[in-house]
Amino acid sequence: MKAFVYHGPGQSSWEDVPDPGIEDAGDAVVRVDTTTICGTDLHILKGDVPEVAPGTVLGHEAVGEVVKVGSGVRTVRPGDRVLVSCISACGRCRFCREGSYGQCLGGGGWILGHLINGTQAEYVRVPFADLSLHPLPRAVNSQDAVLLADIFPTAYEVGVLNGQVRPGDTVVVVGAGPIGLAAIATARLFSPGRIIAVDLAPTRLEAAKELGADAVAHAAEEPDRLVADLTEGLGADVVMEAVGVPETFEMCTRMVRPGGHVANIGVHGRPATLHLEDLWIKNLTITTGLVDTYSTPTLLRMLTAGRLPASSLVTHTFELDGMEEAYDVFSRAADTGALKVVLGGKHHDEVTLRDA
């Protein structure tokens, strides 16, 4: 089969690799119909995630069809259309029993495209299939569903829920990429008083407004002052970091009010300074997190009911064999306007026919 393989920082290619097979009784093999590229994949290509070994197939998000299952799989069978979660869960360890699947001690957690071969391929082996695959209703199309593999549960759990967004709050989202936009969309479910988006790219700020941001600020033009002006000097109740660089994390801590929440969502490859000399007195709650995907069934129900604007985040579509071009477009988002790129022949054919 063909797959997108990481060969070390700055080195990758779409190439032939062996087909995956069943290695454990709980495994399923899924034929990938639709997949996408995550900002985390770009961090891997830069060398920011050293645990990823050269030779690993990247990707941790997909929609596809089950083609083979191990003898221990009970909830899916060949022919089922499924969402492949970015997190795999053994279901037995202490953390899985608490719903903290991202911290799984039984061989799960974030493993696809990280510790084992991932979803940017024609086929993928999915361990712990009973808890790591979600059967999809016919009414949900693949382009929308694939966004529930990672970005929506990540934004919702690590950003909105960890940040404890409440009705009437002033919420700031720093970084209006796919995760930040999903955070804006899901924060709106809690009726905040206002949402402010901060980014460097005018196209992303425009997308943030379309998804419900009440105000936007260019990151180079003193967004701290805008937040202060809009809150009478108090600061935001909740600030979410959705970039993953030291400068934006430190910006978030400057914009939050005393007693407020800073929810870090971004993947950081460099140390950030925590200015405790200023923050110790402010009664802040600062959270970090890897998504657990416990919210995926809830988000899937909301998507089926038309409550999530998933498709509005997709700006570019490609066939699977257009992976290298898709990476190029996604990595140059400031020039291309890319938000979320989706790859997959079946999905693409459906969109083309509908648009025609």
Automatic annotation (TrEMBL):
UniProt GO MF annotations: oxidoreductase activity; zinc ion binding
Keyword Oxidoreductase carried by entry: yes
Region (Disordered): 1-20
Positions of transmembrane segments: none
Cofactor(s) this protein requires: Zn(2+)
Key words, A-Z: Metal-binding, Oxidoreductase, Zinc
Ranges of residues in domain Enoyl reductase (ER): 8-343
A Pfam family recorded for this sequence: ADH_N
UniProt keyword Metal-binding, yes or no: yes
Coiled-coil regions listed: none
SMART domains tied to this protein: PKS_ER (SM00829)
Similarity comment: Belongs to the zinc-containing alcohol dehydrogenase family.
Name the UniProt record assigns to this protein: Alcohol dehydrogenase
Organism of provenance: Actinacidiphila oryziradicis
